[in-house]
Amino acid sequence: MASDIEIARAATLKPMPEIAAALDIPADALEPYGKTKAKLSGDYIATLKDRPRGKLILVTAISPTPAGEGKTTTTVGLGDGLARIGRKVAICLREPSLGPCFGMKGGAAGGGRAQAVPMDDINLHFTGDFHAITAAHNLLAAMLDNHIHWGNELRIDTRRIALRRVLDVNDRSLREVVTGLGGPANGTPREAGFDITVASEVMAILCLASDLEDLQRRLGNIVVGERVDRSLVTARELGADGAMTVLLKDAFQPNFVQTLEHTPAFIHGGPFANIAHGCNSLIATDTALRLADYVVTEAGFGADLGAEKFFDIKCRKGGLSPSAAVLVATVRALKMNGGVQKGDLGAENVGAVERGCANLGRHIDNLKQFGVPLVVAINHFTADTEAELAAVKAFCAQRGVEAVLATHWADGGAGTEALARSVTALADSDEADFAPLYGDELSLVEKIETVARKIYRAGEVDIDKAARVQLERWQEAGHGRLPVCMAKTQYSFSSDPEQLGAPEGHVLKVREVRLSAGAGFVVAICGSIMTMPGLPRHPAALDIRLNEDGEIEGLF
Predict the structure, then answer these.
(1) 194-196 and 190-192: which strand pairing?
(2) Predicted TM-score (pTM) of this structure
(3) For residue 333, what are the contacts with CB-CB under 8 A and spacing of at least 6?
(4) What is d(CA 70, CA 497) in angstroms, rounded to the nearest whole number?
(5) pLDDT (tens digit, 9 = 90+) per residue, 442-466?
(6) Which residue in 328, 293, 326, 298 sits closest to 310, CA to CA?
(7) Is 105 a catalytic residue?
(8) H or E stretch including 463?
(9) Based on CB atoms within 10 Å of each CB, which residue in 11, 120, 296, 297 is the most buried?
(10) Which of 194, 381, 493, 521 is the catalytic position?
């Protein structure tokens, strides 16, 4: 079979007004970015606010292998499958980060016959949203240092600056840096560092804001550090919120594209799921729900990360109520969670699949805690054997959950028609009785402990002494009603990526906490998770180039 980019390049795309017409969007509501990409105008979106919402379907997954288990591919394939059975549907995805594209995991526009297109644009610069977010974030950082340089009227304590700079590449050398060297003309020397753009609070804010006014309000609430009296300093006090909003005004408008089978797709915003909240923008999801009868969206990495944050942060903030969930499982991920090494995943091993189903079962149980009915989608790989697939289906049947084989990578929407019918049956049954895992009234420490015990099955939560003091101070300062965003390895329910399967009774180590007052949550950083990833020994960037015809080669 051809590579992803070869399949995408061979596709014939329809004009964007024709794709928009499937959702009854008028052509003048589109702001074109070339022939195959557009943004939806804010003025048009404002006219939709009183329309009823369609049914929201979440796609999540079991604990993944390093290559990922195909959530985006399944989201695209399911959207195409729903369209094939006659449903009015839209899909909502995150924008890919350049970090994984040039690193190890690859892009995030789907794969095989289930892709959003133009995949090369989507996976690279797209409409420039990430560049705008990077610029807005770093403008704030520059204005902070400039304020200190010119007299520090706000009496900011340079030892307690919380804001780091960002860059949308994996670069471990920038995790910890010293700025302001070279004499007084270059500012005040201090320790600093970089996060990847998708971990920026500005990214989270763009994805949770309801309109431009709300965007500026949230940007103004960003806490950049503390004064010498330990009171908090915000971006609003630095006067940065207005200029930041100007930089983000176009990026805030949802991006609109299509799949290979011409299903409408909103791709907007891209916070990481292991270090941020892992969902596409609220404005894109809400807009899609006002336009389509069914909206399929994804949440990053395993359900212990992406789905938990989708439910406890995005749904809480946006007043969303999912009608159904799709839990993506693969035979290879089950084998890895059953103890098989990466290099041996291609060989049949039914015993390992059965052992790995403990991980699948844990995710099933966790999703049920939120009151959302679910179906398991077995994302088919060519190395899967009938005996292995039968083991997965038998396990799900014992749990009272349907498991449906999905072949969308090879067959496109035709490979998900059965899954689409199962999903619509669940969504239309009105079985969902959604509720977040915890209430606003719990303390920040109690919220962290609730997620750790109920989702991760931790026996103990070890919060660093300094982090616990910070949580108590934020609680007293009025931030105690915020939800928590757990930054944790995607490979394990624990904070140790080596503990695969379904560990219980482990110690969850919380080493650091960060207040994202603008986004409206508190980040708890667990174990050794990094907010600026590094490149692998052989990064994908080594294989990406332009051929003699000026076409991109090596991009998946």
Answers:
(1) unpaired
(2) 0.94
(3) 61, 62, 63, 64, 65, 69, 356, 359
(4) 20
(5) 999 999 999 999 999 999 999 999 9
(6) 298
(7) yes
(8) strand 460-463
(9) 296
(10) 381
